[in-house]
Design brief:
Shape: globular
Order of helices and strands: HHHHHH
Radius of gyration: 16 Å
Largest sheet: none
Distance between the termini: 52 Å
Strand content: under 5%
């Protein structure tokens, strides 16, 4: 609860959750100032769950974003059942991160975030290749 009470009010508008593609785009375009949630009052590490990072990134839009993520995860499950050779890696990664959401959001940083975005690019490419060959 400390993360919610010490929040300064400035939200990141997706800069926490979409850090990997934004950094890639930042190589081409200059985005200016980068959002740092620790400067806005967020305590990182064991004090932070997936809910506090959603709150710092999207503010009161967080519940809507969470429902959209749930819908996307449901669609991902359907795609993984229809074309497992394309989508199963991404689905497994997202399912594992959902299991750990109460402890820490695995989708935000490190190898896990890189894996999610890499598997997404792979799945889109493989699915497109399948549609060309069928």
């Amino acid at each position: 609860m400390d993360n919610f009470t010490s929040f300064s009010g400035k939200i990141g508008w997706g800069q926490i959750h979409f850090a990997v593609p934004l950094r890639a785009l930042g190589l081409v375009f200059d985005f200016g100032e980068v959002y740092d949630p620790t400067m806005e009052g967020m305590r990182d590490g064991l004090f932070s769950t997936a809910f506090s990072s959603i709150y710092y990134d999207f503010g009161w839009f967080g519940p809507a974003i969470t429902f959209l993520f749930g819908y996307a995860a449901t669609r991902l499950h359907a795609m993984a059942m229809r074309e497992p050779h394309c989508w199963i890696l991404l689905y497994g990664t997202v399912a594992f991160s959902c299991a750990l959401a109460f402890v820490e959001s695995q989708l935000l940083s490190g190898y896990f975030a890189s894996a999610v975005w890499s598997f997404l690019l792979f799945a889109l490419g493989a699915s497109f290749w399948n549609s060309l060959n069928s």
